[in-house]
Amino acid sequence: MRPFVFATLVCLSVQSIAAQRSIRQVNFKNFSYPLKDYLLGHGELKWLSTQVAGGPRLRTIQLKGGENLQKEPIGKIGDGGYYEVSGFTLQQVKYADLTGDGKEDAIVVLLYQSGGTQTTNYIYIYSLENGKPRLLAYCHTGSRAYLGLYKVYGEHGNLVVELLDPRKREGDCCSSGFVRTRCRWDGGRFVAVGRNEYGSAEVETRPLTR
Q: Quick check: is 95 in a domain?
């Protein structure tokens, strides 16, 4: 039995080491995210400071099962009630090498719901360093048709962010166009490269559906 137990422990150890080498093994559904700046009223793509000092207080958002929500009862339908929901949900995680080191980084998107109509998306970029996720940078977008997040992904080493174009909005919720910005990691931050690009968005699709 001892050789079997030893072999089992070796296998578990190898799996653990392997997990630490891949950013894909990080459980971003149950994860703590820093947050600085105000939650609403944004109308732009803005990179936020990862430093504690200066500006609005740095907070922490703890997700459990992919969400951190508060439900406030506001009425009833028959025997049941309905609620106003506010807080954060994990919308997506994508992977791409954004630093040029040949290893994947994680592009994590959270959605903040105000309980009303306004929303804000937060984009977090994590790499793996010494077996642990390290935050490289994070930013927020605007709200819905006013430069709300449409898509985000990695392409040819760049971080590509597509925001709904307010000039082509069809009501406050939607837009028939998007503005694409390409950002490159310069070793300490993401900086925009090239000119903005413009394209057509699917109006019937809400920004950044799963």
A: yes
Full residue range of the structural domain in which residue 137 is found: 23-200
From the list 123, 137, 128, the residue with the least C-alpha distance to 190 is: 137
Give the tens place of pLDDT for each residue, 139-172.
999 888 989 999 999 999 999 999 999 999 988 8
Classify residue 101: in a domain, yes or no.
yes
* Tokens (6 digits) for 54: 């200066």
Tell me the C-alpha distance between 90 and 73, whole Å.
23
- Residue whose pair of structure tokens reads 């459990």 in the numeric block: 64
Q: Is residue 8 a part of any domain in this protein?
A: no
Write the pLDDT tens digit of every residue in 188-209.
999 999 999 999 998 754 445 4
Number of structural domains in the chain: 1
Torsion of CA 36, 43, 122, 60, to 10 degrees: 20
All residues at 6 or more sequence positions from 17 whose CB lies less than 8 Å from its CB, including other chains: none
In a domain, 17, yes or no: no
pTM here is 0.81
